[in-house]
Design brief:
The chain has helices at about 5-20, 85-95, 110-115, 135-145, and strands at about 25, 35, 45, 75-80, 100-105, 125, 130-135. By secondary structure, it is α+β, with helices and mostly antiparallel strands. It folds into two domains: about 20-50, no CATH class; about 55-149, 3-Layer(aba) Sandwich (Glutaredoxin), CATH 3.40.30.10. The strands form two sheets. It has a four-stranded mixed beta sheet, with helices on both faces. Helix 2 links the parallel strand 4 and strand 5. The radius of gyration is 16 Å and the shape is globular.
Length: about 150
């Protein structure tokens, strides 16, 4: 008998791929701007036609006050309903650390990357050659320190 969790995951992935990949922009009740392919039902979202940056934390500026160059390799694999994913992104945002988010429910290539990097659950945080499965503030800080952040 097939694994029911795997079937649910595949059904969600298929449904999201059939829905299209139109990005939307909306502002939440706290005034924060969000981008995604599935805005909340209560949000007044508008389609976005330009490419968007997946980084949602605090902008990092260099000494001249211009956007700092993003370090390659800091990626967080997430799902939309993962509370630990939200906490990890908020942690990096508070520290001003840029990252790329990859929602594994929206892309087969993200799912493959996630598995290839040893993902067992979300969040999976990858900093260069180092990975962290799950989230705790202490373990994320250790990973970031080891990666030079």
């Amino acid at each position: 008998m097939p694994n029911p969790h795997r079937l649910l995951f595949l059904a969600a992935a298929l449904a999201s791929s059939l829905a299209g990949a139109q990005p939307y922009k909306w502002v939440d009740a706290q005034g924060r701007t969000h981008y995604g392919d599935r805005p909340p039902a209560e949000a007044k979202a508008r389609p976005v036609t330009a490419a968007i940056n997946t980084y949602t934390g605090t902008p990092v500026l260099n000494a001249a006050g211009k956007p700092a160059a993003l370090r390659e390799g800091l990626v967080i694999y997430t799902t939309p309903t993962c509370g630990y994913c939200t906490a990890a992104k908020a942690h990096m945002g508070r520290r001003g650390i840029p990252y790329t988010e990859r929602d594994v429910t929206t892309s087969e290539s993200y799912q493959r990357e996630f598995r290839q990097k040893g993902g067992r659950g979300v969040p999976l945080i990858v900093a260069g050659s180092q990975t962290l499965n799950g989230y705790s503030a202490e373990s994320l800080d250790a990973l970031l320190k080891g990666a030079g952040y």
